[in-house]
Specification:
By secondary structure, this protein is an alpha+beta fold. The chain contains eleven helices and eleven strands.
Length: about 425
């Protein structure tokens, strides 16, 4: 078999494949006999029709089956011969197939990028250290008070920070059709942190049993793409109003939350936890900064099949939550992130090869234990859950990425700065 590989733009390769005529004839003969063995032709017992009769009755089907088999076999043999690692299925074209002649065709594929990563050691990084402020501790304490507040029913008009239980119907035009949805017993926290300002303002002042109809135009930056820019009509009925009674901020409140003797102990524990989170965030940002700098120093083209596959998965995920979201807009919004992620995956795997970083069974066992503890599972259950080939591969990749990042951070030149 003859194979010629032509390099095209990026990671595209065209394989010109030629199977000799004797291979073609063998495949045709084999296919003729398969059809002869099962052929049902008038005037002959099943499987007993002469070969020439079978050929005349099933010529197109026989040629089609033989060609399909030859294309698959020829492509696979070409890959073995050239040692190419294709991404996805080939685009087969320019097929020349005639009995008595060699089979010629082209297979266009994209292959795994072959890269050598450079300039990834002693990278200059800046680590910003955030010191926890008293205001952050106060905010965390207030959050705990909110969570532990008593909800007391009241017979008055709705005020900010109340909890209201309402029924409402929303309706809006979509594709020249009126779309309506009913919601019952919805618990709403009357705060501009949880509700759109215009929605909140229309509820303030209502009493139990009162109804109100109003219209809102959602802003272009609203998180739900189904409502962005839409004019929505609401019909709301108030069923209950409750006010929040916050617990006093004292030692008794601290004791009610757990193993704290005083409010001071609670404040110190909150500060400690916030500082740990700040340090974790600083570490995350440091790794992000490192990845960006390595990407800048190692530019290469991403195979189209990989970015297209990534974007299709994103579109599927977004549209499962927001069916009316625009597919092209989703792809545009996520393309840069996808390209960076795909490049980094190739880069950290290549660095692992260059630096001989590997994932051992001990690494895997330790990560499975951590997974079991995090999700409160028995070790056997965690092992069973993570036993599929994809989850094993994902786990190995996650550990490998962490080990590579740890190695690079150890070799980086990190300057610490106190955040203002």
């Amino acid at each position: 078999m003859k194979v010629n590989v032509t390099n095209q733009q990026g990671w595209k390769r065209v394989l010109e494949i030629e199977l000799p005529e004797d291979k073609v004839e063998q495949e045709l003969d084999s296919t003729y006999k398969k059809y002869q063995a099962k052929a049902k032709i008038a005037g002959y017992r099943p499987g007993k029709a002469p070969l020439e009769v079978v050929k005349s009755h099933f010529k197109d089907q026989i040629f089609g089956d033989a060609l399909e088999s030859l294309l698959v076999r020829g492509y696979q043999e070409a890959l073995n011969q050239t040692q190419l690692q294709p991404l996805g299925s080939p685009l087969v074209k320019d097929i020349h197939f005639e009995p008595g002649l060699p089979l010629k065709f082209k297979a266009e594929v994209e292959v795994q990028p072959e890269i050598t990563v450079k300039d990834y050691k002693e990278i200059q990084l800046t680590k910003k250290i955030e010191k926890v402020k008293d205001e952050e501790v106060d905010s965390a304490l207030n959050y705990l008070r909110e969570r532990n507040a008593e909800l007391r029913p009241v017979e008055r008009e709705i005020q900010e920070k109340d909890i209201a239980i309402v029924d409402f119907m929303e309706s809006y035009m979509e594709n020249n059709l009126l779309k309506k949805q009913n919601f019952e017993n919805q618990l709403l926290e009357l705060s501009d942190k949880t509700l759109l300002k215009e929605f909140l303002e229309n509820l303030l002042g209502l009493k139990i049993g009162e109804e109100k109809e109003f219209e809102i135009t959602y802003p272009m930056d609203y998180p739900n793409p189904n409502l962005v820019g839409k004019k929505v009509n609401y019909q709301v009925k108030v069923k209950e109003i409750k006010e929040k009674i916050l617990p006093s901020l004292n030692d008794d409140f601290a004791k009610s939350l757990g193993n704290y003797a005083t409010l001071l102990e609670l404040r110190l524990k909150i500060r400690e936890n916030l500082q740990k989170k700040a340090e974790q965030e600083a570490e995350r940002q440091l790794k992000e900064q490192l990845i960006v700098k390595i990407l800048e120093k190692n530019e290469f083209e991403v195979p189209e099949v990989l970015i297209n596959s990534y974007l299709e998965l994103v579109v599927r995920d977004v549209k499962s939550k927001y069916p009316e979201a625009n597919e092209n807009e989703i792809k545009e919004q996520h393309k840069a992130t996808g390209l960076a992620r795909i490049k980094w995956e190739f880069i950290y795997h290549q660095i692992a090869k260059q630096e001989k970083v590997t994932v051992s069974q001990n690494d895997m066992d330790e990560r499975i234990k951590q997974f079991a503890q995090a999700y409160n599972l028995e070790l056997a259950k965690a092992q069973e859950y993570l036993s599929t080939p994809k989850r094993i591969r994902d786990l190995q990749d996650s550990i490998l990425e962490e080990k590579v990042l740890d190695l690079l951070l150890k070799e980086a030149k990190i300057k610490e700065e106190k955040a203002s």
